Amino acid sequence: MQKSPLLAWVLLLTLAFIWGSSFILIKKGLVGLEPQEVGSLRIVAASLFLLPSAIKRFKWVDKSRIVYLMSVGFLGSLVPAFLFAIAQTQLESAITGVLNALVPIFTILIALIVFKQKQTKAVYWGVIIGFVGTAILITAGEGNSLSGINAYALLVVLATICYASNLNLIKQKLNDLHAVTVTSVSLILVGPIAAIYLFGFTNFWPKLMSVEGTGLATFYIVLLGVLGTAIALIIFNKVLQMKDALFASSVTYIIPIFAVMWGVLDEERLYLMHYVGMIAVGIGVYIANSNRAAYKKAGKTK
């Protein structure tokens, strides 16, 4: 469907704004909550919001798919939620948002290594440039210098690998299921795990009842779960219906802009090497993803 190009762009920018704002919401949530509370609460909020849809759609899912949907819940939601929360205790939200743009690169690499998809030379150059930018971001220090490795940035890289593995899993095993079905059912499969951990193994509930600031932090993370997972998915599906996958995937290039914008507004400390790394990551992702799309369109992947 190619109708309403202006509306499609409005929805795409709205989606980029929502996902680009996820990292500042995590940062605000960490003011009153521990990282494990942020991660588990985010999943609980998202799964509860999508519970009606999941109940309706669960009956359509073949039981043999449950193991794959459970894997999607872990790789696409639960594990990254914890990794991002822990990483942002020692990492600026703007840098986290830019590193998140590595998802397309790792998606390409996994498809290449695991599923033996061939790519053009330009794609490899894009991957290399993207990783150079990542190395700069991970080692960027104060001023214009490079310092030691920030291990917390590696947690974000690990989260993007989870996302990329999840995308390949969906493509290979669940491609015939509607995206809302995959997301809602996978979330209710891991939602109880997050809820048990949140209420049984953290101090979230006592803190919410007695510690000042916990309520506002909880609001930020619930907003993140509802907006960043549930509503964003609905918008993404609408964009896919109106345009195509290539157009929808361009959101990857816009998300870091909003992530950096929020970081600057929140007076985060960003140095010259951070911006160099950000630009390199953006260029690498663009080269790799755009050339891969052209290669697939020509029918040369296998």
What does this structure look like?
This protein is 77% helix and 0% strand. The protein is mostly helical and 302 residues long. The chain has one domain (5-297). Helix 1 packs across helix 14 (251-265), helix 3 (35-49) packs across helix 10 and helix 4 packs across helix 10 (179-201). The longest helix has 29 residues, at 214-242.
Give a quick rundown of the structure.
The chain has helices at 5-20, 22-29, 35-49, 51-58, 66-87, 93-99, 103-113, 121-139, 151-173, 179-201, 204-210, 214-242, 245-249, 251-265, 272-297.
- One letter per element, helices H and strands E, the order comes to HHHHHHHHHHHHHHH
Q: What is the number of helices?
A: 15
Please report the total strand number as a whole number: 0
Note the overall shape. Answer: globular
Task: Please give the alpha-carbon distance between the first and last residues.
Answer: 26 Å
Biggest β-sheet, characterized? none
| Radius of gyration based on Cα positions | 19 Å
**SS content category:** mainly alpha
Features:
single chain; 302 residues; mainly alpha; 0% strand; disordered C terminus
